[in-house]
Amino acid sequence: MIEHKKLRNGFEYIEVENSSAKAKIALQGAHIFEYVKKDEESFLWLSEISDFEHGKSIRGGIPICWPWFGMNSNKSLPQHGFARVFMWEFMDGYEIDENSTSITMKLTHNEETLKMWQHKFELELHVVVSDKLIVELKTTNIDDKEFEITQALHTYFAVSHISHVNIKGLNKKPYLDALTWKKELQKGDITFNEEVDRVYQEVDKQVLLLDKSRTISIENEGSSSVVVWNPWIDKCKRMSAMKDNDYKNMLCIESANAFDDARVIKPNEVHTLKSTYNCLL
Question: Which residues carry out catalysis?
Answer without folding.
Answer: 154, 254
